[in-house]
Amino acid sequence: MTPILETPFLETPILQITGLAKQFSLHEQNETVPSCSEVALTAFPGQLTALTGPTGAGKSSVLKCIYRTYLPSAGRMDFHKANGTVVDLARISEQDMLQLRRTELGFVTQFLHCIPRRPAEEVVAEPLILRGLTLSEAVEQARDLLTRLNVPERLWRLPPATFSGGEKQRVNLARGLIAQPRLLLLDEPTASLDKTTTARVIELIRAFKQAGVAMVAIFHDPELVAALADVEYRLAPPQSLPQPTPALETASS
Amino acid sequence: MKPILEVQGLTRIHGTECPSCLDMTGPEHNTNVCPACGSIVAAANVSFSLQPGEILGIMGESGSGKSTVVKTLYFDQAPTRGKACFRDDTRTHDLFELNSAEQRWLRNHRFGMVYQNPNLGLNFSISAGGNIAERLLMNDLNHYGDIRRRASELLTRTDVMVGRMDESPRQFSGGMQQRVQIAKALATRPPLLFLDEVTTGLDLSVQARILDLILEIQHELDTAMIVVTHDLGVIRLLASRTLVMKHGRVIESGLTDQILEDPQHAYTQQLVASTL
Ligand SMILES: Nc1ncnc2c1ncn2[C@@H]1O[C@H](COP(=O)(O)OP(=O)(O)O)[C@@H](O)[C@H]1O
Ligand SMILES: [Mg+2]
Ligand SMILES: [Zn+2]
Predict the structure, then answer these.
(1) Residue B233 CB coordination number (10 Å)
(2) B29, B96, B230, B263: most buried, per Cβ within 10 A?
């Protein structure tokens, strides 16, 4: 894996990944499928780190390992928390990961998973409510962000289930961005957006960088990488680990 | 933050236990019936903890022992062995060491239960309002007007028409009966709520509204919950962490998104694959 476009930073990194690998043991098929291997990367506050590489190189897997949606098979992921301590995301307890997700770590996945039947503005507001804001404060900020992302006002009170792909994606983005996590993972956040909206997303990402948010992102469009990335890591197709390896043991809560 | 509930080695065996019961049952033996003595190992060595305000899912097929876990914690059944500690503002209660009066007090004041079968949670010989009043009375609310007001507030909150509060819940639809059960369970604002297959067998749209209600309650009251279900959709929607049970054992546990996207155990992999 080669870092391209690297610029030197004096700042403390927020995330340092070394030797990360993930492989799936599929019991029924009696098969081991590697999904990423030998991943090493460093992400800094205020910087966007782009993951690139061919389909199947494991870009989404890396993000999912960081977020613990996948249990890593090997490696370390040192995360520098706001309070100055460093934790290994591959090994922290489930409770600690849930706490980080509420406060410092955000993920905009490719698809919106949310409570059915809830109005879009409340879906977007939810991360703020989890942080203790009142519904009306949170919804006010949600509306602001929905405006910036070009979501028409007539949709705000409707549940996103019936929205178009692009509208859903904007709601999903807004929900991921609203709480301004310190580290934001983005998996193709503009894949189904039109030009105007993509431009707004680019503006927002730039504003986030200004505000010191670190991002690790996958873009389908190389132009976006060129426009937004401070560092690019190109992933090579994954190799199997030497031995069948169980998932790493995590701390008990 | 300290857990509100810590369970260690919870075991429930139906029948006279023999030395082989634990060794010869479980997922690797593909049974929960002891071949040596015929006892049923409904749950064995179940351990977990629950944070205040957290929703924990227990998932698994019918007969895997999910209900046994919540029923022992709610004192509907006694465990064969195991330890469970419940913490409230004032102290830690060692659940299986309490006498029955103390257990009853916790059940009435600190816990709430919603059963799959409304027959178990509701008294059909009295009105819906009366069901709630019963629970309020146990909580030292005994002014008729206050009780009626609180009961109608709770029914309104759970979208049961207050106009029907004097009818027996026997005549209600399945979805409405579950709402009355939820209203009743919430009457004392318990910090811990057990939900056993509460949406199973209901129409999808009715299910959806009940799940919404559960999430709203969790947001409003910060209630910790254990949600038992065989439905992965319910787990995905409600639970932050999930235990998977089979033949009385917890075969794996993790963050819910991880259990669903990266299941480790062969059985969970099958379960998830079959619902994609
Ligand atoms: N009173 C009982 N006597 C004998 N076996 C029981 C009794 N209650 C439950 N079981 C058995 O214990 C096992 C676990 O049951 P249960 O906890 O109800 O499972 P679940 O809720 O996962 O469907 C099943 O095999 C069930 O038949
Ligand atoms: Mg059951
Ligand atoms: Zn036996």
Answers:
(1) 15
(2) B263
pLDDT tens, position by position, A138-154? 999 999 999 988 899 99
Return the higher-pLDDT residue of A21 and A165.
A21
**Cβ(B60) – ligand 1 distance below 6 Å:** yes
Q: Across the strands, what pairs with A177?
A: none
Q: Give the model confidence (pLDDT) of B166-221 as tens digits.
A: 999 999 999 999 999 999 999 989 999 999 999 988 888 888 888 988 988 888 88
Q: One-letter amino acid identity for B102?
A: E
The ligand whose atoms approach the alpha carbon of B38 most closely is 3
Token pair, residue A160, equals 């996103």
Q: Kindly list the residues from chain A whose CB atom is less than 8 angstroms away from the CB atom of residue B265.
A: 27
Is the minimum distance from the CB of B127 to ligand 1 under 6 angstroms? no
N residues, chain A: 253
B123: helix, strand or coil: coil
Question: Residues B242, B254: contact at Cβ < 8 Å?
Answer: yes
Best B241, B257, B264, B268 residue to mutate vs chain A (most A CBs within 10 Å)? B257
Tell me: pLDDT of A189 over 70. yes
- Please give the distance, rounded to the nearest whole angstrom, from the Cα atom of residue B60 to the centre of ligand 3: 23
Amino acid letter, B139? N
Q: What is the full DSSP assignment across A158-188?
A: S-GGGS-HHHHHHHHHHHHHTT--SEEEEES
pLDDT of residue B207: 86
Q: Is the pLDDT of residue A241 over 80?
A: no
The list of chain B residues with pLDDT below 50 reads none
Q: Give B208 to chain A, closest Cα distance, Å.
A: 8
What one-letter code names the amino acid at B49?
Answer: S
